[in-house]
Every structure is written in C-alpha cells, then in structure tokens.
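Tokens in:
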C-alpha cells in the first residue's frame, strides 16, 4: 500500500476532521505552521513541502490565481502552473476560475516583490499535482482504499479529488448496491469519503473509483435489522409489482405496490421477513413521510485498507454478486 497520508484531497490540510477514518491532526498542524508566517513558507520552499491555502482571486485576463495563507501572506499561481495533466493536455480555463473560494494545494517555488513592494510567494499547483501523480497515484492498484472528496456530480457519476486536486470518476452504478437515479442521492459536493480504486490506466493517467464495496455485504447490512421492526427508508423505485425501499446504501427491500409514493420519498416500513438464502427483505409500507436526514456513511473496511475480492451476496445464496479487483493486463512485448 502507498502512503495515503502524504497526498490528500484539497481541503484536508486546512479543514479538521474532514477525512473519515483518517487521523489528519499532524498534517493539519504542520500546514498551519508552514503557512502561518513568511519563515514557515520559506521552510516549505526549502524542504519541497506541499502546503494548502485558499484561492481568493483570479485575474481573468492573465488567469493568474491569488492564494491566501493562514498567516495573511499571499501567493500567486500563474496560468501554466495551475493544473497538471498526466496525458500532457492543457487544462481548461474554467478549471482555474472555479478554484476561487476553494482550498488549493501547491508547492512554494520562491518569492518575489509586488508592485507595492509587498513580498508574495511564487506557487505551483502543477508541481504539487505532478509529484502526487508520480509518487502516489501512479502506484495505486485496484483494491486500494483511499480518501477522496466529491467535487461535482453528473447524472452518470461523481467526480472526486483523490489527492492534490487530481480528479477521478466513480460511475453512478459504483456508488452503492442500492440503485440511485443520480449521485446526489448518495453524496453531496464537498463531502469527504473513502473510495476504492477500480481501475488505474497508466497510459492516460485516468483513475476510476468505486464506493459500493465499502458499505458492507448483504449480511452485514441485514444484521442491523430484525423482523417485526418498523424503520425508516427511502423509496428508490416504484414498479407494478411493488416499491423498492432503501434501508441502507447497500440494502433494499420490497414493499407492496402503493400509488401515493415516488422515488426520493421517505417512508416508514414494517419488516415482515429477512431471507438470506434469497437475498430478500419483505416490507410492509406503513406511511410516506419526509426523507430521513442522511447520516455519515458507515464503512466496512479491511485492516490493511486493500481488498482483492469482495462478495456482497451471502455464501448460501445461489446468486453471486461480487467484485474482483485485478490489475490491468499490460500488453505482451514481442
């Protein structure tokens, strides 16, 4: 396993308790020291440390970003130093403009004087991202579990920062076993999560992620419930033969048809039976209500933060639902 503590999503160095199941106390303290004074930034420069501040301004003529640090000192990132693309392509200007108001990680490359004689830091986010890619991301293998931060979502999937602002994609079908119509049904922009590497393409530098394997197996989720309980859930789909109700991100049951509910509604359901051998939970709809407030995800993690194989279905179930994490096969040279 590679070191997930050294290269974290942007925001992790300045916002405490951001990354779930990860102690970031030391790196937050170090970043506060390095960015709290000119001397600290000089130390970061001489030691090649990655620091984090907040992008507060973008000159839309030069596409230069101004970054403010905790000590009040500012730095500048020139257009060509804002983004690193592993495939060598140039970044889009919209990616620069939309950094304003958000945390940003960078390397301190030196110092200069502004027009009014003030000292500012010359910064490079590109160098920080390049280092992150070479020393960390390129070494990730399928099955590695790492911290991530959701940046934005589209109907087909959630984009997430997996280190220094480097972006990966988790398609909507990989976000949970329970089917959702849109990633916003599972996550929120800016939310920090854990995710597992599904594919790491060394040729393009594209990394694809998944979260469904971290939310537990059918049996692990079903163990939280017993027959004769009444619990809350979320309607995920309505069919002629019944209503599918999500009890947890990786567990859904089927209730009888009902005409006054639709996907996204909250509901109260009575658990009639739990059938592991058929991987089914039979429910009785009690009432339709407001959706329950979404709580932090519960993770089921292996000790070494890596999995080679994950089986969702119970052993006694004839239907096998599993994920096998396998490295990409490299072409055989003649």
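Residues out:
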């Amino acid at each position: 396993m590679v070191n997930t503590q050294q290269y974290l999503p942007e925001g992790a160095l300045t916002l405490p308790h951001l990354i779930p199941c990860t102690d970031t106390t030391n790196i937050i303290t170090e970043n506060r020291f390095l960015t709290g004074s000119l001397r600290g930034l000089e130390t970061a420069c001489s030691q090649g440390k990655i620091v984090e501040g907040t992008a507060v301004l973008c000159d839309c003529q030069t596409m230069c970003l101004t970054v403010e640090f905790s000590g009040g000192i500012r730095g500048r990132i020139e257009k060509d130093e804002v983004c690193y693309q592993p495939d060598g392509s140039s970044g889009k200007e919209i990616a620069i403009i939309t950094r304003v108001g958000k945390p940003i990680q960078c390397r301190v490359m030196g110092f200069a004087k502004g027009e009014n004689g003030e000292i500012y830091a010359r910064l490079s986010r590109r160098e920080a991202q390049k280092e992150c890619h070479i020393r960390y991301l390129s070494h990730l293998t399928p099955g590695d579990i790492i911290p991530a931060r959701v940046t934005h979502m589209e109907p087909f999937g959630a984009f997430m920062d997996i280190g220094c602002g480097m972006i990966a994609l988790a398609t909507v079908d990989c976000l949970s076993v329970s089917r959702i119509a849109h990633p916003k049904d599972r996550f929120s922009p800016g939310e920090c999560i854990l995710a597992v590497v599904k594919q790491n393409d060394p040729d393009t530098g594209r990394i694809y992620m998944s979260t469904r394997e971290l939310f537990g197996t059918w049996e692990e989720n079903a163990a939280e419930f017993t027959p004769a309980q009444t619990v809350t859930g979320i309607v995920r789909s309505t069919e002629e033969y019944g209503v599918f109700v999500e009890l947890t991100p990786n567990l859904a049951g089927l209730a009888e048809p009902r005409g006054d509910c639709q996907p996204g509604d909250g509901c109260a359901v009575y658990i009639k039976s739990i059938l592991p051998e058929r991987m089914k939970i039979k429910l009785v709809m009690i009432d339709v209500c407001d959706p329950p407030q979404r709580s932090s995800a519960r993770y089921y993690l292996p000790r070494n933060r890596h999995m080679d194989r994950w089986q969702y279905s119970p052993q006694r179930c004839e239907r096998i639902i599993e994920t096998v994490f396998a490295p990409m096969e490299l072409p055989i040279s003649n």
